[in-house]
Amino acid sequence: MKICICGSLSFTDEILRVAGNLEEMGYEVLLPAGVERGLIKREDFDPVQAKFETDTIHNHPEKIRAADAVLMCNFTKNGIQNYIGANSFCELYLARYFDKPVFALNSLPEQPYIHDEIMAFGIKVLDGDLDRLKEEE
Questions:
Q1: Three-state SS for 96?
Q2: Residue 5 — φ and ψ, nearest 5°?
């Protein structure tokens, strides 16, 4: 199975760790270009420039389309547990549009301004257990 990972660039280290675990389990993994390039580790990192540099608006949706499933890597950011940001929210929307099964690594966040929409995506929560993906194949 080919899995496209989505998540904030702030989670680059965590995403790479998850990707490595998935690859060890035999999955093919598609990563956000900013994670692949390690953009957040640059001294001159600028999140807006990173989106232009990687052409996120065009490139990541194509990875979502090519994948068999999408995995949202959601961790704590800015005091929000299991954060899902604006870009990641858009990617979840696209995944559902392309009829891809969507998984969240951790429980879904309590972000009032997008809570109902996130719940309506039918995301399967893995509770941190990647082995649960096998149950869904």
A1: helix
A2: -90, 135
